[in-house]
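ZP: hey, is the adenosine-5'-triphosphate complex queued? I don't see it on the tracker
AM: it wasn't, my bad. submitting now with these inputs:
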Amino acid sequence: MSKIILTGDRPTGRLHVGHYVGSLRRRVELQNSGEYDKVFIMIADAQALTDNFDNPEKVRENIIEVALDYLSVGLDPAKSTIFIQSQIQELCELCFYYMNLVTVSRLQRNPTVKSEIQLRKFETSIPVGFFTYPISQAADITAFKATTVPVGEDQLPMLEQAKEIVHKFNTTYAPVLVDPEVLLPENDACRRLPGTDGKAKMSKSLGNCIYLADDADTVSQKIKTMYTDPLHLKVSDPGHLEGNTVFTYLDAFCRPEHFERFWPDYANLEELKAHYQRGGLGDVKVKKFLEKVMQETLEPIRARRKELEKDIPAIYEILKKGSEEAREVAAQTLSEVKSAMRINYFEDMDLIRRQSEKYM
Ligand code: ATP
Ligand code: MG
C-alpha cells in the first residue's frame, strides 16, 4: 500500500513556533525522507471560515502568509503538493455523505471542539459548520487516502473521529477508505507548545505567539518577557520546571550541541535543569541561552522568507498547481465513494440494464 501524508493549517494568522515544533519541522523531515509516495499539505481556508465566516478578508490575507511560512521552513513544491482546501469541491461532497455516519452526541463529546467552543465564546450559538468541522476534516484526510497524519496533540480527537468514519463507511458500503494513523511530535513540549504567557497552548487566536516571521528584535523581546517560575524571585531560590515556559521551550528547541556552542558550562539540558532546581541560577541567563538557540533556528527561516516575498505571484502559481493536482486525487476517491454508496447511476451499465429488464 502507498504511504501518503496529509496535514495542514488554518489560514487564521502567520504560523508560529508551536506549529514549527508541533508539525512543520517533522513534515519537512518526512518530505525529505523519501519514504512517502505522496505528501499533501493543505491550507484549510474552508475550515478557518467555520469560525471566521464574518471575516473572510482575514482568511484570504493569511493564505499567502501560511504559504510563505511553509516554503520558508523547507516544504518543497517539487516534493509536496501544497493546496487550498476550498478549491477542492469534492471535499464538501464527501463531508456531506460522511455526516450520515456520525451522531450529534458523538460530535458533542469531542474535547477539542468543546474547548474551542468555550474559547470562542459561542455558548449556545454554535455555527453548525464549526460544530461539524471534525467531519469535514475526515473528508480532507480520506480524500487523499492518507496513511499518516503528522499533527499536534490537539488533533488527536479529530483523528479518532476520522478513523470511526472510515470504519463505519467501509463496513456499511465497501472498503474504499484508508485508515489514517496519527504521527505525534517527539516530546510533550512539542506536542502542545505553551504560549509565551504560559497559557496551555500557543495559538494564533490567543495572541501569545512567537511567529516564524517575527524579526530578531521581536523574538528577543518576547523571550525577555516570557512567563517563567513565579516563585523564583531571587537567583538563590530553588527554581521549578513544572509550567516554566522557558524550560518547555528548551525541551522543544535545544540540542546537546547548543551547549557546546553557546553555554559550555553545562553538558546538556539535564545539568542545566538540575542547577536551576537547586537554586543559584537566574532566569535572565537561561533566557539568554534560549534566545541564542531559537535565533539560530529561526534565522535561516527568516532569510528564506525575505527571498520568497520578492515574487508573490510565483507563490500563488504553486498553490494553483497544487490545488489542481489535489483535485484530481480527491475526484478519484469521490468517484469510488459514490459507487460504494450506490449513487453512481449513470456509470453503472448493469443498473440500467437490470432496470430495463424489469420493465420488459
Ligand atoms: P487557531 O487558533 O486558528 O486554531 P492554531 O494556532 O491552533 O490556530 P492550527 O492551524 O489550528 O493552529 O493548527 C495547525 C497544526 O499545528 C495542527 O497540527 C496543530 O496540532 C499544530 N499546533 C498548533 N498549535 C500548536 C502548539 N502550540 N503546539 C504544538 N502544535 C501545535
Ligand atoms: Mg487550532
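AM: back. Residues 3 and 107 are 29 Å apart (CA to CA).
ZP: great, adding it to the tracker
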